[in-house]
Design brief:
Number of helices: 0
Oligomer: single chain
Distance between the termini: 40 Å
Shape: globular
Helix content: under 10%
Strand content: over 45%
Order of helices and strands: EEEEEEEEEEE
Number of strands: 11
Structural class: mainly beta
């Protein structure tokens, strides 16, 4: 059984930064791609950033390019999302998820394990 536990969310002013972490339990973390997704009230869940098994391939939704950075530490079974220059429109619950394969891009249907989410709130 795979468990994903996010941490690092909180309340921050516009222009501020946060670092989200997602710790994974279970075997073979390094074999799978990982992703960060978010869902704001009244909106559909969207992919934010994803990373392949080795960290050599990443994807970012256009709205966060240049501001967010996804990374992973396979020795620690952890994936990170650095959020810089935050905007009020970044306010959402952020979820990490494990891909069904080594790289799945931005399609949430290709992710089979999900964390419980961490709230990010950006005040103007």
């Amino acid at each position: 059984q795979v468990q994903l536990v996010e941490s690092g969310g909180g309340l921050v002013q516009a222009g501020g930064s946060l670092r989200l972490s997602c710790a994974a339990s279970g075997r073979a973390f390094s074999n799978y791609g990982m992703g960060w997704f978010r869902q704001a009230p009244g909106k559909e869940r969207e992919s934010v950033a994803t990373i392949n098994w080795s960290g050599s391939i990443t994807y970012y939704v256009d709205s966060v390019k240049g501001r967010f950075t996804i990374s992973r530490d396979n020795a620690k079974n952890t994936v990170y999302l650095q959020l810089n220059s935050l905007k009020p429109e970044d306010t959402a619950v952020y979820y990490c998820a494990r891909s069904v394969r080594s790289w799945s891009g931005d399609d949430p249907r290709s992710y089979d394990y999900w964390g419980q989410g961490t709230q990010v709130t950006v005040s103007s």
